[in-house]
Amino acid sequence: MNEEIVELFEEAIRRHVSDIYILPKVKGYEISFSTAAKFEFYKKISANQAIHLINFFKFKADMSLSERRRPQLGAWTYEQKGHKIFCRFSSVGTFLDQESLVIRFIYPNDFRNENYFQQQQFSQILTACKRRGLILFSGPMGSGKTTAMYTFARKLQAQLVMTIEDPVEIYEPNFLQLQVNNKAQMTYERLLTAALRLHPDVFVIGEIRNEQTAAIAIKAALSGHLVLSTVHAQNVYGVFLRLINLGVSKYDLEQTVQLVSYQRLIETTAGSAKVLFDLLTLNQTSWDEIRQNKRGVMTDEWKKNLTKCVQKGEITVAAKEKYLFG
């Protein structure tokens, strides 16, 4: 591995970036870093340098070097100078045949005590995970949903934890990890159906994305498994509405859902970032309230917790205003 790549990755790790962007510009390319707090320019490089850099990463991630226009995904583990970082790659070409690459960093053991604002929220989720049923995580990309799911699954110390993802984001040797491969007809639905026969103690499903996945996740939860999964929604209320839109009945949601969590990674006054959760159970709300809040309103508890963070000096007033509505 050449010094340029080691220097790039070590600087990214030092700044604890979530993504590295290698993007074409009018003249040459720019490398930028994305953190929870901001998107910042790193340096300019020539087009030739960028091509060599992108091809190196594509080779490591077993992506096609000859394909420069169509979107591709890949993964690679960076191991250097005592660091071991799991990397996800996403490439795509512009109409001018200029390829871009985004590298997502997944840090090991990343969800420690200092990575979230409130101990009681973490404890509440962990308590819910100790009961059978469905625990649902939501939040925008980069908010740490997968890291959170893996953390809680590890805390349970279950005999058999199975994960089904597209792609696998975090390598965990103690889990049985399955990866979706549509070309090989290994779809979410087929993998979930096969996995049920192994009777795992805990399922981690990367995403409930369609009616089939939702139905199998509900089936697994009803049959006595603990299921952790993500659902795309703008708040905790929206998670319930999303599942209803995917054909899940209110009765099945009442029977299976233990807890819904919406999370954001919020920049602190110390320059780092921490997770704040917005938590909801069906015992705390009604279907009428869920319907009324479908336009993106957060819970009252979310607003109170943001205010507490400001009062403790953990976040700025500007940060509170930025995340007030999720």
From TrEMBL:
Domain Bacterial type II secretion system protein E, first and last residues per copy: 5-289
UniProt xrefs under Pfam families: T2SSE (PF00437)
Keywords: ATP-binding, Nucleotide-binding
One function term, GO molecular function aspect: ATP binding
Gene Ontology CC, one term: plasma membrane
InterPro entries (alphabetical): ATPase_ComGA, P-loop_NTPase, T2SS/T4SS_dom
NCBIfam families: ATPase_ComGA (NF041000)
Family statement: Belongs to the GSP E family.
Name by which UniProt lists this protein: ComG operon protein 1
Organism this protein belongs to: Ligilactobacillus acidipiscis
